[in-house]
Amino acid sequence: MKKTMRTIIKREAKEGAELATREIPQITSNEVLVKVLATSICGTDYHIYSWDPWSQGRIKPPKVMGHEFAGEVVKVGEKVSKVKIGDIVSAETHIVCGKCELCLTGQAHICTETEILGVDTDGTFAEYVAIPEENAWVNDPSVPPEYLCIQEPLGNAVQTVLSGEIIGKTIAVVGCGPIGIMAVAVGKAVGAAKVIAIEVNEYRLNLAKEIGADVTINPLKEDVINRVHEETEGLGVDVVTEMSGSPIAIEQALKYIKLGGRMAMLGIPTEDVKMDVANGIVFKGIQIHGIVGRKMYDTWYQVKGLIASGNLNLDKLITHRFDLEDYEKGMELMKSGNCGKVVLFPNMK
Ligand SMILES: [Zn+2]
Ligand SMILES: [Zn+2]
Fold this sequence. Notes:
18 strands, globular, binds zinc ion
């Protein structure tokens, strides 16, 4: 086996990234070495690339970027027992302690000691990556790697949409970036009565429509609160899935959510949000759920089942494919917002 590999690394504490040659990682007794077949760009990767305030506080360069992937296991540590050479795996990206109260009570996704692949450790924008066996999710090898690599963000969408009842409900997906469009697909696949997509970028709004949204609303062009009420017999939506992190969008959502409704929040605001707690939350009797990562591993089984069902518009979720070396084209698309999921292939050329 060769000794070095191509990677995309964040070398310095500043904007950008670079193509670099690195040693292929060594594995510990509990890890597996995986040859990356496909790796998708996450909003988090773009934050790290653009070196936003969150990244400045969290990332310690140099680091290989990336965390969403599918690849083939080429080497296993001596204590590895479940995963075999030749398996096609993806990774749960939360590397957890397995010992704290949260890990021991079925809530490992919010473990206090969580490290994230490609954020706190070297990631998957590379030809090879080393991951703990425990984090390796063994895939159905008949599914193409480009679909398998998006299971991690798809899991975010699944946990958000399915954090409460959904069959026969009206649902507003606020923010139709890659995870928002996945939420549209999941909502339709599991039997929501009506999926209303709300997004300011026209490309993404059209994508939401193609993927199956029943109603699309651009809040820059029409009154979103009135329109949602018109679409829901004046009552508002049963479920809001908040993917935008926009303070204005959150404030508006509390005005069009139905009494007794549920708001699942995945988008991360970068500033404090002003909310009418009395009239928007308390007197409406709504529930608010904060969504972090994916339930380990309940969400992964749901994702696997949904992919197997054939009911997700997977081909439409992926809009761009590039060789790893052309990662900058992908980052530019993420910046413009004119994309769904962008997938990189280490050996496309
Ligand atoms: Zn991600
Ligand atoms: Zn823990």
